[in-house]
Amino acid sequence: MSLALIFPGQGSQYVGMAAALARSEPAAAEVLRAADEALGFPLSALMAHGPEDELTATRNAQPALLTHSVAALRVLGDRLGEPGFAAGHSLGEFSAHVAAGTLAFEDALRAVRLRGDLMYAAGQARPGTMAAVLGLDDAAVEAVCARVDSGVCVPANFNSEGQVVVSGDVAGVEQAMELARQAGAKRVVPLNVSGAFHSPLMEPAAEGLRDHLASIEFHDPAFPVISNATAEPVTSGARARELLVEQLTSPVRWSASVSRMVEGGADRFLELGPGKVLATLNRRNARDARTTYAGEPEDFSGLEI
């Protein structure tokens, strides 16, 4: 049996993230200093003080989330031992690969800053949106998307049983929302996003990210990282590079990723970074496993790993 590390994605950021951790832990402070230096602007100040709308912007939220997750990782250091797996939700997959040594933190940081720019630009060129569908199973949401004929709409995030996010152009998602209600969804919630993430509308962003990642050195992960796109372990640096591009236009198969880790022997999960979104999802995704989280100083006191 083994430990699985999990890393949050966009939406978990908040003003003040990692600030207290950096004040109390030198290892975290060094990560924030390195982030500022790598990006050439004071990301740590934006994380600590906002403003919120600037922090939430895709190009800033992505490096902020990566930085907070890696700061938490470095605080734990040798206490983690040798994890059995790692996985991250969307942007968090980059954090997982940093944890596994697939790519250097600074390289990942610059890549996700560009990733955010590319995703925003793709959303401006072809406007899109997303919506959360609650109370329908995966197959029912897939059937809803298949019935959409007014535009593009695809499943984007399979988060847990009864929680699926759809993505596409505005007309397609609006039709899917109505079809989901007709199919018996308990709730359908439009999301405040700048584009149709994890859909075919992100293809221009995928092309730009592919070109950039080709210039970065990738190593074979020290332990398997579960891919968002396939929900299968990645053990090759070359394959990791391919799948980090593919995930931009593919659904995040999060519930299947967690199941794959459980099947592989993971009996403990630790979410590293801001918030506890993934730990909360594990109440459905990994009911029999112990899940903890660590992102702020109080989380590390008495933490069982």
Which helices and strands, and how do they pair?
Layout: E1 2-7, H1 19-24, H2 26-39, H3 43-49, H4 52-56, H5 58-76, E2 85-88, H6 92-99, H7 105-125, E3 128-134, H8 138-147, E4 153-160, E5 163-169, H9 170-182, E6 187-191, H10 203-213, E7 225-226, E8 233-234, H11 237-246, H12 254-263, E9 266-272, H13 277-285, E10 290-294, H14 297-300
Parallel strand pairs: 1-2, 1-9, 9-10
Antiparallel strand pairs: 3-5, 3-6, 4-5, 7-8
Helix pairs in contact: 2-5, 2-7, 5-6, 5-7, 7-10, 8-9, 10-11
Overall description:
- The protein is of the alpha/beta class and 305 residues long.
- It folds into two domains: 2-123 and 200-300, Malonyl-Coenzyme A Acyl Carrier Protein, domain 2, CATH 3.40.366.10; 128-191, 2-Layer Sandwich (Alpha-Beta Plaits), CATH 3.30.70.250.
- It is built from 14 helices and ten strands.
- The strands form three sheets. A four-stranded parallel sheet has the order 2-1-9-10, sandwiched between helices. A four-stranded antiparallel sheet has the order 4-5-3-6.
- Helix 2 packs across helix 7, helix 5 (58-76) runs parallel beside helix 6 and helix 7 (105-125) runs antiparallel to helix 10 (203-213).
- It is globular.
- The two termini are 13 Å apart.
- The mean pLDDT is 97.
- Radius of gyration using CA atoms only: 18 Å
CATH architectural category of the largest domain:
3-Layer(aba) Sandwich
* CATH fold-level assignment of the largest domain: Malonyl-Coenzyme A Acyl Carrier Protein, domain 2
N-to-C CA distance: 13 Å
What's the short version?
By secondary structure, this protein is α/β, with parallel strands linked by helices. The protein contains 14 helices and 10 strands.
